[in-house]
Design a protein that fits this description.
With 430 residues, the protein is of the alpha+beta class. It has helices at 9-12, 23-60, 67-98, 116-121, 123-137, 139-166, 179-215, 221-270, 278-302, 305-322, 339-360, 396-404; strands at 169-170, 175-176, 327-332, 365-370, 375-382, 409-413, 420-427. Strands 3-4-5-7-6 form a five-stranded mixed beta sheet. The protein has a two-stranded antiparallel ribbon with strand order 1-2.
Length: 430
């Protein structure tokens, strides 16, 4: 889960306290409200599919297909194509609203579809139709299988009482005649109750994932690709401009400022201490030296000099040596890294270690740099108090934006009481 991502059912299922949290009840509410919608859509699909089944059955038995069936199939198919994008739109709106029960992460707004023609040419409309077909075709089957499992578990739980009343109870694969014989099956039924709770959660989480994929997916592929390309162009332009500024400052302004500082220092040697110009000259000399330090920091903020001289692993070890707590660095970098990826990774470590020093109350930290596949993975962990929250201004939001600018992603695990782990994955194209 990323630093600013709210919890949802799929993540809650991995928690130990899932069954005693509010998530099973939210999943139940989502499932119960799914039944009428899925039922109506299933009936509609049956009406549409019945002529098609008749045609397939006739073809399988080498029987002639009657004209009424062909006409019915043609009319049904044309009506489905013409009406589906319009009729399904309200269903999709309800599903987007209902999804908040189990997945409060915001969905991208559907693109505007003004006019009748836009309903048939928009990819979002046909994704909604695909979701409706899935909701009416697959979901009822899945819910039916789960209902049979629940019914079987209820029979297992009630088996002793049924055996006492009826004398013989069929449990599918066997029969029992007395409550004593039924008792082991009842114990199995009790053990299955929490299992069914997790199965129901997985079923609803899967349904919600499909809803998010189809209803919240990219509505316009070419536009999305163009946005991706434009972001890449902006990042490349920024990197080129960064290098130009660094070169101009290093080769132009910095030498001139160094010369000015030197000239002011020589002038102080020639001016007597009791001269009226001595004090202003000393102040100007000190200000020039302070400006040198500031300019050096600005240049280093563009691309740190130690990163250029030592590489990423060496620069990170230097950061660790300057930290206020012991920091262990493990670096396994087997291939050269792009300059932009190196710079991003360096500032990730710098900001993360700064957060540890300012907020974590940790006694030690660890930095790992690895290159699995075509990615650079940066992990910064500490044994502090945890509870890192981007909303409290700890720099995580800006860090996530910096990582996203190079198509990377940031993941945060920081439970209350610690420990905290910041993991950043940066793509490294070969």
């Amino acid at each position: 889960m990323t630093a600013d991502e709210p919890p949802h059912l799929a993540t809650a299922l991995r928690g130990r306290d899932y069954l005693i949290s509010a998530w099973p009840w939210r999943a139940l509410a989502y499932a119960v409200t799914s039944v009428p919608l899925a039922g109506l859509l299933a009936v509609a699909l049956l009406i549409v599919g019945t002529p098609l089944v008749a045609v397939v059955e006739a073809a399988r038995q080498d029987r002639p297909i009657g004209l009424p069936i062909i006409l019915c199939l043609a009319v049904t198919g044309i009506a489905l194509v013409l009406l589906a994008p319009i009729v399904i739109s309200p269903v999709a709106a309800v599903e987007r609203w209902r999804l908040d029960l189990v997945d409060p992460r915001p969905l991208p707004e559907p693109p505007p579809r003004d006019g009748l023609a836009a309903r048939y040419t928009s990819a979002a409309s046909w994704r909604e139709v695909a979701y409706a077909c899935w909701l009416g075709g697959v979901v009822p089957l899945a819910y039916g299988v789960f209902a049979l499992l629940v019914l079987l578990d209820l029979v297992l739980l009630a088996a002793p009482w049924l055996a006492e009343e009826e004398g013989q109870v069929a449990l599918g694969w066997t029969t029992v005649d007395t409550p004593g014989q039924a008792l082991p099956y009842t114990i199995v039924g009790i053990l299955l109750v929490p299992v069914l709770g997790y199965v129901a959660g997985l079923l609803v989480a899967g349904q919600a994932a499909v809803a998010r994929w189809l209803l919240g997916g990219p509505a316009d592929g070419p536009a999305l690709r163009e946005v991706t390309r434009s972001r890449a162009r902006l990042v490349n332009a920024y990197e080129a401009e960064r290098r130009r500024i660094e070169r101009d400052v290093h080769d132009g302004a910095q030498p001139r400022l160094t010369s000015l500082t030197l000239q002011l220092g020589l002038a102080r040697l020639d001016v007597p201490d009791d001269s009226p110009a001595a004090r202003p000259l000393a102040i100007a000399h000190e200000q020039a030296k302070d400006l040198m330090v500031t300019l050096r920091q600005i240049v280093q903020g563009i691309r740190p000099q130690n990163l250029t001289e030592l590489g990423l692993a060496g620069a990170v070890r230097e950061l660790a040596g300057e930290a206020t707590i012991p920091v262990t660095v493990h670096a396994d970098l087997t291939r050269p890294l792009p300059e932009l990826v190196e710079t991003t990774a360096y500032f990730v470590v710098s900001e993360a270690l700064g957060n540890v020093a300012r907020h974590a109350r940790a006694t030690r930290a660890e930095v790992r740099l690895t290159q699995p596949g075509r990615h650079l993975v940066v992990e910064v962990s500490d044994d502090g108090r945890g509870g890192a929250d981007p909303a409290r201004g700890t720099g995580l939001t800006g860090l996530a934006d910096r990582v996203a600018a190079v198509d990377g992603r940031l993941l945060l695990a920081s439970p209350a009481g610690g420990p905290t782990l910041v993991r950043v994955e940066l793509p490294c194209p070969r």
